Amino acid sequence: MTLTWRSITSRQRGFDSVGSAFNPSRTARHYHMPLKSLADQATTYRVRFCIGLLAVCILAPLAARDSARALSTMYNAPALWLPEDMPVRKQYDDFSELFQGQDVLMIGWDGAKIGAEEVDQAAQALLPLVQPTSDRPAYLEGVSSGQRVFDVLTSPPTSFSERATRARLKGSLVGEDGEQTIVLATFSGAGNLNRQEVLAQARQLVSDRIGVPEDQIYTAGPPTDGALVDAEAQGSIDRFTLPSVIVGALICVFCLRSIVLTAIIIIVAVIGQGMSLAMVLYSGIEMNAILIVLPPLVFVLTASAGIHLCNYYRDAMCSDPTIDPTAATRQAMQAGILPCWLAATTTIIGLGSLGLVRLVPVSAFGFIAAGSVFGTLLLLLLLLPGAMQWHGKRHRIKHRAALAKANEEDIDPLPVEKWRSNIGHAWEAFAARFMKYPIIVVALFTVITAVAASGLPQLTTSVNIPRMFPENSRIRTDYAWFEEHIGPTINAEVVVQFPPDSMPDPIDRFRLVRDVDDHLRSTELVGGVFSARSFLPSPPSKKSRSIRSTVLEANIRKQLEDPDSPLQDAGYIAIDKKGNQLWRISFRFPFDEAIDYRTEFQRVQAEVIPILESAGEGISPQFTGGVPMTTESQDVLLQDLFRSFLAAFGIVAIIMMLLLRSFTGGLVAMFPNLFPTITLFGTMGLLETPLDIGSVMTASVALGIAVDGTIHFLTKFQSQSRKGKARTEASLAALHKCGPAMWQTTAVCAISPLVYGLSDFQPTQRFAFMMFGLLLAALVGDVLLLPALLASPLGRFLTPKTPKQKPATTR
User: Fold this and answer.
1) How far apart are CA 105 and CA 191, in angstroms?
2) In 155-194, where does DSSP find H-type helix?
3) Which parts of the sequence belong to the Membrane transport protein MMPL domain (predicted)?
4) What is the pLDDT of residues 130-176, one digit of tens each?
5) Residue 651 and residue 655: Cα distance in Å, rounded?
6) What Cα–Cα distance (Å) separates residue 476 from each residue in 186, 464, 479, 588?
7) What are the angstrom distances between the C-alpha of 132 and each of 128, 135, 188?
8) H or E stretch including 575?
């Protein structure tokens, strides 16, 4: 069946033509069915309600149990969010398989000095975590420290002087003063899966052994990053979900003036929240910081659909004080079900478009959220009609006099609803003033949108973990301590690859690695360089033939070839499956939000590649580690966000064109829906505020939500236009009908997630503020911009044409 605005509005004519003298017999005649069909309809609604209630009884325990199980799988590893077939991810996986030290926890405190007994004591305190027990596997693969490496380098066969050793370890294991050092703990696979517990145990063990309070023991590295993100992400759900639901329920009760209808909406929304988390478990993926915004989003979208349906019912009840509750329910369902399905479809398209994003959690978010929207709408359609009937029968006699007075005096039915009535009248009066100057209003919104759009090219993204926390957070404090006392903390890696037939002499290979190492040490903003160069003395010149040079070269060659040498134990040389020898060079950048890591990393690449290219054919570098993985994730996030939004916009625009049966009309109708996204995201670009993992999904979500209001508004506008009203008059009438539902959904859907803005976890906080801003902007677009468009010359493309009536003109 082809859906057109004519087919939508034809289903509404009975509703819109209902007068104050509406009675049951006229209801029956209007629908061309005998009066007893209302009884049949009531039975149908009761059966549907029972089916919905049964579904609730089945889903509620599943939602409660499996949402908790899903949260228990919380594991954040941004490096693993990229698809496995991407070159940068494949290089990282290969690197992690060949070399140790990717999941290293750095532990430090103010008294950790070279030569201090506490350093060895702290390392020994962690040894119980290296050994498996009867009830757990080994949580650590090994423990080391700057002191141990210092002792190795100052002992035979290297026998470096203490001064030379301090210089070699400076910035990686020893601070600028040559004294401050750290303890290193390498996490096992089991330790990573239980990193919150292991991190707490490690701090406690070290604290008890050396007598330093836990809050004065500082940690950094991937394990502590992941543990803190896991804790904050789960804490956001634990602390703010219930308050958000309570706030939403209170606003919903105030707006709908019905505990029964509110209860149905909130129950379905809460079950939708739980089932969205359960679907994460069923899909086999781990919970993470991106997916934690699923519950508030599902709550928002469910509440929006429920409030729109209830407002159709409320309009039917207010239109006639004697209307039968079943008839009113049928009126509401026939008038609202198609717009609600269309609105849900556009929302699902917006969410589903996130499936185009290559970051696994984002694409999973889109599909799960889309499925949740579909499921909660089905539940609402099963439960709400029965609840509407029960609500109507209970209040029919009580409200009859108030409804009659409301129709006679054009006031809101109940005194307690004056606030809602005043808000509605304020919107209408405000919009009416705007519609006196429609061209100016449209031009003003166009200029605002254009100015904001100029910021879109400047938009950036960030998946940097320390930036997910406020300035005074524990992770920021710990990173600042390491930056001050040890050196840079943001790691990157260069792996020099030697094919079997290229530069066969290991001494020559070491010379080349030394040259790269020395170059990195002299590069601005690069520190913490660590490689085979840190373990071995510089080889003699090739031209030197002295006995001392011969002995030195033999000593270096022995350590390079001895599998038990300190260098080999450190794991900085490996052989891949193809027989290539790989030499690892680690380096770090400072943690500074002012640093453009992409530019600095590209500068390092530009300087290292020529050194290796000049060494001979086949020798090549591989760049991996935290910096390239982060920058690649940010690039993918931004590119795919743009692609997914374009896809969603294109599909929704085509749907609008088909419904309006006008190419131009579809494009015009999309302007109010683009306004929120372009304005907020463009402003973020102008203010140089990066998108984080909490706000990146909101663009496509906002498009779907904005179209929701547009569809309901245009449905009413089309209906009023077919009655012969001019565009301005039809717009005001549509606003009168749809305005309450619009501001009510905005109030519930914008304010209830705002509770998450109290979180210290930046992605959750940013999501709350972004949703609030986008929903508010969407309301402005639908209440001010859309009526102005309809009253302007562009409105003729949105006005229905009938054989008997020419398009209405603006009066």
Assistant:
1) 11
2) 162-169, 189-193
3) 146-404, 614-806
4) 999 999 999 999 999 999 999 999 998 888 999 999 999 999 999 99
5) 6
6) 22, 12, 5, 17
7) 8, 8, 11
8) strand 573-575
Contacts 24+ apart (CB under 8 A), 411-414: 413/318, 414/257
Is 384:298 a contact under the CB 8 Å cutoff? no
Give phi and psi for 610, each to the nearest 5: -60, -35
Cα–Cα distance, 322 to 403 (Å, whole number): 9
Q: Cα separation of 130 and 187, whole Å? A: 9
Helix (H, G, I), strand (E, B) or coil at 702: helix
First to last CA, the chain: 36
pLDDT, tens only, 383-428:
999 999 887 765 555 555 555 555 555 554 444 445 455 555 666 6
Name which of 354, 309, 356 is nearest 330 in CA terms.
309
> Which tokens hold the place of 174?
């020893």
For the chain, the average pLDDT equals: 85
Alpha-carbon distance 38 to 216, whole Å?
Answer: 73
Domain ranges (residues) in the chain: 5-72+257-453+637-797, 103-227, 470-624
Give the pLDDT score at 649: 87
pLDDT at 2: 40
- Flag whether pLDDT at 328 surpasses 60: yes
CATH number, span 103-227: 3.30.70
Q: What angle do CA 702, 381, 782 make, to 5 degrees?
A: 30
Q: Are strands 527-530 and 218-220 parallel, antiparallel or unpaired?
A: unpaired
Pick the CATH number of 5-72+257-453+637-797 from 2.60.120.10, 3.90.79.10, 3.30.429.10, 1.20.1640.10: 1.20.1640.10
3-state DSSP assignment of residue 590 = coil
Q: What confidence category does residue 23 fall into, taking pLDDT thresholds of 50, 70 and 90?
A: very low
User: Given this model, what pLDDT does residue 394 score?
Assistant: 59
Task: Locate 173 and state its tokens.
Answer: 């294991």
Q: Are 670 and 645 in contact (CB under 8 A)?
A: no
The span from the CA of 70 to the CA of 168, in Å, is: 46
What pLDDT shows up at residue 483?
94
Query: Residue 589, SS3?
Result: strand
DSSP structure class, residue 287: P
- Rg (Cα) of the chain, in Å, rounded? 33
Do 695 and 767 meet the contact criterion of CB atoms below 8 Å apart? yes
Cis omega (within 30 of 0) on the bond before 296? no
Among the listed residues 316, 268, 294, 459, the one whose alpha carbon sits nearest the alpha carbon of residue 366: 294
- Provide the token pair at 157: 């066969």
186 forms beta bridges with 104, 142
- What pTM does this model have? 0.81
Q: Are 184 and 144 in contact (CB under 8 A)?
A: yes
